[in-house]
Task: inverse folding
């Protein structure tokens, strides 16, 4: 069972906006940075958002992140077919002294 | 080109041992903390272990503490994961991952992964 909770699935039609939540506690999201990763099965995961809302070079601005209290969110606007993937949030957990991943959300483009 | 290449995966019996290796190239390996992350079949990603630049500090998930040991050889630009007392639930693809301080300690470079299967 993952320390960070995400909805198992999300979906939308091309062009729509999809939001994925990541719920944690005061020992992880509440006091530490949150990062987001995109994972297409069979390939290496890719860093999408770091430090809550920063995009690495090459990541389109359709992807955005936010955080409020002990929860974080990833938003994908202008949904495209190539966005079909699994998405994971990650944070450092002070109580566990380690990184914790979210349970993952599978995004489907209808 | 920045690259991480894992090796050492395979089939091992429960209770057995395996050592994974990760060859790094294209960057100053000794300047980065490194990690292992795994994904069991049909499951999500799970952080396994991390090691600081000099190897002075290591951290591991509760699920592998006392069984897995992460280490590195900066002269050989290589990362290792010694896995002992393997269990069926350790079956997974194991990824070697670079941690970037300039990107708030996020995982910015991933290898392609190596499969470990624990089965009798």
Result:
């Amino acid at each position: 069972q993952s320390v960070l909770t995400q909805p198992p699935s999300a979906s939308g039609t091309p062009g729509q906006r999809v939001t994925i939540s990541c719920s944690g506690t005061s020992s992880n999201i509440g006091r530490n940075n949150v990062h987001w990763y995109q994972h297409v099965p069979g390939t290496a995961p890719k860093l999408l958002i770091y430090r809550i809302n920063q995009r690495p070079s090459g990541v389109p601005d359709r992807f955005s992140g936010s955080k409020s209290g002990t929860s974080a969110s990833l938003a994908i606007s202008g949904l495209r077919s190539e966005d079909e993937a699994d998405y994971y949030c990650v944070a450092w957990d002070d109580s566990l002294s380690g990184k914790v991943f979210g349970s993952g959300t599978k995004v489907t483009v209808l | 080109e920045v690259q991480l290449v894992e090796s050492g995966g395979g089939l091992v019996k429960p209770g057995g041992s395996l050592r994974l290796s990760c060859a790094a190239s294209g960057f100053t390996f000794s300047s980065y903390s490194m990690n292992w992350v795994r994904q069991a079949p049909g499951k999500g990603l799970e952080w396994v272990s991390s090691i600081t630049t000099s190897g002075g500090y290591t951290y591991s998930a509760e699920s592998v503490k006392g069984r897995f040991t992460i280490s590195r050889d900066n002269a050989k630009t290589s990362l290792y994961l010694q896995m002992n007392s393997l269990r069926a639930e350790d079956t997974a693809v194991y990824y070697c991952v670079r941690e970037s301080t300039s990107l708030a300690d996020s995982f910015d470079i991933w290898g392609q992964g190596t499969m470990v299967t624990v089965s009798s």
